[in-house]
Structure formats: C-alpha cells, structure tokens
Design a protein that fits this description.
Helices cover 32% and strands 33% of the residues. By secondary structure, it is of the alpha/beta class.
C-alpha cells in the first residue's frame, strides 16, 4: 500500500481526492495539508511515497514545493492534481510523475498510481544497493547511504554518523560530498554534510546562524552563516 499526502488549500478538493484514492484501494492517505509549509511539516511526521499537489496555493505554489523536494535523498513521487492545464510543462521540469486536470477520472488516477509504484520500486532497489566503505575497530565495513545521518570532517579524513555508531573514512569530506550528490545530503558547514530528510528541528542562534537536530542523533549540527539561506530554501522554510 502506497503512503500519500494530499496538498490542496481547498478542503472539498482534498476530500474528493481522498474519496477517489480510497476507491482505488492502493493508496493510504496518511496526512493532508492546506499549504506548502504545512506539507513540509506533515512530511517530517508522516514519510510518504507520493504527494498529490495542487499548483496554486497561498504563499508558495505546488511547483515550488516539488522543486524543494528534489533536494531530499529519496523524495516522494509528485503527482499534480489541478484545475489548470497550462502548468504541465513546468510540472515535469520539477520531475513530476504525472499531471492530472480536475475533475479527475478514475482511469487516469490509476495510471498515475501505477507510475508512482514503478518509481518507488526503483528507489527501493537503489537504496539497497548503494554503500560507502568505512572503518571500525580495524575492520573494513560497507554501510548503506540511507543509514548515514551526517558526515563530519576531521583534517583530511571524515567520520560518518549512523543511528547506531560513528565510522571512520579515509575519504575527504569533499570527495564524500561528490559521492553523496543526488542522495539528499546538504553541505551546511565546511565541516558537515547532513541528510536533509532526517532534520527534525531548526533552531536559530545568535549571529544569524542555525543549529540542527537530526533524527537519532544527540549532538546538534551547526550551520554556517553563509549556508543559512540556501538551507532554508532547500527545506522550504
């Protein structure tokens, strides 16, 4: 069963789509949101396989949200459900899986769900296959990229933090940044790369900088002042 979040500023539209998805029997709607900001908060609490997005919403558009999602390691699939046909080209520029114009017909919705399933399967396969070589206790170990919380530089070396342990790598942070490109990691500081999908809290501190709390990690990660704006954009803040 696919997990989905519906994002539309109109409650009747959300209710209608939820009804259609229930009729399909292949999607579990885990949350709804009336704005981009709310959608980001819901995604942190309810990880999903697909977001069904409206285009026109207050403050920020569905297109802006879809663009921001691409910074995640494995972003949810995006299916636009909108009354406006003229934004289809823009939607596919932000890697939308499908673009449905209201009123939505069940056969078109079924096609979109099928495409989502294909993408989810590909992501799961990629997630299982990609690993990084590290060292621990004199042993060489391979850890999955999906297990990494953050990477911390130490001189010409680096440490990779998972939810369970910290591992040593002879590869520099700059090299690891290239290796992790496209997997949702973000350089927040000259000494830190973080997994964007695992950020739970963003705390403002004196001097215009930030501190990040990551899922499964006790220590807070600093954000350099020059990276604050880019990070906020990546998180949709």
């Amino acid at each position: 069963m696919l997990k989905a979040i519906i994002v539309d500023d109109e409650a009747p539209a959300r209710s209608e789509l939820r009804f259609l998805l229930d009729e399909q029997g292949q999607v579990d709607v885990v949350a709804e949101a009336a704005s981009v900001r709310e959608a980001i908060e819901k995604l942190k609490e309810y990880p999903c396989d697909v977001m069904f997005l409206d285009v026109n919403m207050p403050e920020a558009s569905g297109l802006q949200l879809a663009d921001a999602l691409q910074h995640l390691k494995y972003p949810p699939a995006v299916v636009f459900i909108t009354a406006y046909s003229e934004f289809a080209l823009d939607a596919f520029k932000v890697n939308a899986i499908d673009y449905l114009v209201k009123p939505v017909e069940q056969d078109r919705l079924a096609q979109a769900i099928s495409r989502v399933r294909e993408q989810v399967a590909l992501h799961m396969q990629a997630q299982k296959s990609e690993r990084i070589p590290v060292e621990k206790g004199g042993k060489k170990i391979l850890i999955g990229i999906d297990k990494i919380r953050f990477v911390m530089a130490r001189d010409d070396y680096a440490f990779l933090q998972t939810d369970a342990d910290r591992y040593f790598s002879t590869v520099s942070l700059a090299q690891l940044e290239k290796r992790l490109d496209g997997h949702g990691f973000f350089r927040v500081h000259r000494s830190y790369l973080v997994n964007l999908s695992l950020i739970e809290e963003v705390e403002s501190v004196a001097g215009g900088t930030l501190l990040l709390t990551l899922s499964g990690v006790e220590e807070k990660i600093p954000v350099s002042r020059r990276r604050v704006s880019a990070l906020k954009k990546a998180l949709g803040l």
